[in-house]
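Lab notebook: predicted structure, single chain.

Context: the supervisor wants predicted structures on file for every construct in the current expression panel, including those that have not yet been purified. This is the next one on the list. No modifications to the sequence; it matches the entry in the shared construct table.
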Amino acid sequence: MPSPQPPRAVFAMDPVHLPLLFPPHLMTRLRRAVGIDPGLVVRDVTDPAAAEALAAAEILITGWGGPHLDGDALAAAPGLRAVLHAAGSVRSLVGDELWRRGIAVSSAVTANALPVAEYTLAMILLAGKDAFGHRERFRARHTHPAPQETAATGNVGRRVGVIGASRVGRRLLELLRPFDLTVLLYDPFVGAAEAAALGAESVPLDELLGTSDIVTLHAPDIPATHRMLDAGGLALVRDGGVLINTARGALVDSAALTAELVSGRLSAVLDVTDPEPPPAHSPLYDLPNVFLTPHIAGSLGNELQRLGTVVVEECERLATGRPLAHEVRAEDLGRVA
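Prediction complete. Output recorded below exactly as produced.
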């Protein structure tokens, strides 16, 4: 009896990402699970060169730079039954027509959460040591700090406020466990018992802002969280406090934050801003109390293969009739990134 044909799949993303998402060992494994042409990477579903492959496709493997999957796009792939996203949020990728057709969607968002949490942990520990401030003063003075300058420095008992028990937030809470920190959590969907199980104390947002030394944002960018840290909220943060944002710039009132940073009252680690990147004239580029990075906390370089691994594993599940492990449902998009 002949073996069943593997499901047909097509890549739909910016091809620049493909070699890092699927290095040779992963590409070999992927080609064992599905029928796919590694030389065909679709960005425009109306491209005649992709018509035959899309018409036969059951699986679309998407990533950054991929097409929006509206009705016109789906018409090019009438046999499509699954979209496997080798990146994080699927919010800008999927449309209503996809959900109406019952096409399954999977995302590698959990794998992408790990480097964000790792980056945030590093920034928390560095901020607790005032590493960025000491660097600036050392550059200017060329001398070591006097003991009185370091009296308030250190990570023993430092209060860290985590806003959002998202995938990144939960992974960060795991990473914070070995350290002598006091961890607070604000998330309206997480109760006191669950927060305690995660290693944090559940508190209202105003209490978190007013009592934390370091505040780190991990909430999704949805209408309910737009500008959740406004001028009033930022004013609650104690003098000398540090804000870390590796989530989305839209969660913070940019003008209010800039004013606080220009005044020197607060410091910040900003991997995301609104707009992104900041305008050329923004003071964020030059302020000594701002550590600004170009949206690098998420998967980069060799970390991308983690995302590819998730997609390969999902393909193997589909090819053997098993359910997806990282399925995203339409109802999830109301409260996740």
